[in-house]
Write a structure and sequence with these properties.
This protein is α+β, with helices and mostly antiparallel strands. 46% of the residues lie in helices and 19% in strands. A hairpin with a 5-residue loop joins strand 3 and strand 4. The protein is globular. The protein starts with a helix and ends with a helix.
């Protein structure tokens, strides 16, 4: 027959075991919640509008605009960065719903993804450009490298593939594994690459489109005579 002491020990043991199980599952639940919070934080940590203040967002967008938006025929490549041409880029951003979608500042460079509506399409299509840049102590861009320009995509396709490409760039520093995949990357390709010295898309050595540049140079030479 159980004594009062035995009953108390059994009761205390059950209470202790129950408390231990409660704490065990509570800790597991807490860890799960923390992991979810961390995953959400990581998920959103590279969204430009959450990663930059409103002022920094507008400033960064204005800085990269001459690099990612095709210039007007009214000025040369060298004149892209002049203050007098800022209205052209601002107007394009307004018309094409251009936005800095993703942005991540690292110690040595800043990664970004710029998305805009393709105004040449009869339907709602978008294109995007991703890369990285470095700035000097005054915040001026001193180096720009555009790693990819997407093909024309629907909004849902852009949301999916734009994110995949940016995450790949964050992980590896490039998108080499997607080069040649026309569903993700339009340029660079065998005909075009980004010339970091001239800050423009340029013809590759064996580009099938190089004759256009040669024809332009010939025309300029003829007109100078």
């Amino acid at each position: 027959m159980l004594t009062t002491k035995d009953i108390r020990q059994v009761y205390e043991s059950k209470v202790f075991n129950g408390l231990r199980l409660f704490l065990f599952f509570s800790m597991r639940y807490l860890v799960l919640v923390l992991l979810c919070v961390l995953l959400v934080a990581c998920e959103r940590s590279y969204l430009a509008k959450e990663n930059l203040s409103t002022g920094d967002y507008e400033t960064t967008l204005a800085k990269i605009a001459p690099y990612v938006i095709g210039k007007s025929d009214e000025f040369s490549f060298e004149e892209r960065f002049l203050a007098v041409n800022k209205p052209f880029y601002n107007n394009f951003i307004q018309l094409a719903n251009g936005e800095l979608t993703y942005f991540l500042k690292l110690d040595t460079a800043s990664l970004f993804f710029f998305r805009y509506r393709d105004l040449t399409s009869l339907y709602e299509h978008y294109r995007g450009i991703g890369g990285y840049f470095r700035v000097d102590q005054n915040g001026s861009i001193v180096f720009m490298n555009l790693l990819y320009h997407t093909p024309r995509l629907t909004k849902s396709e852009m949301d999916e593939r734009g994110k995949i490409l940016f995450e790949e760039m964050m992980r590896t520093g490039s998108v080499k594994s997607y080069l040649g995949n026309k569903l993700f990357v339009h340029t660079p390709n065998r005909d075009f690459y980004y010339n970091t010295k001239l800050n423009r898309w340029d013809y590759t050595e064996n580009s099938s489109w190089k004759f256009l540049e040669q024809a332009r140079q010939q025309a300029e030479s003829d007109s100078a005579r």
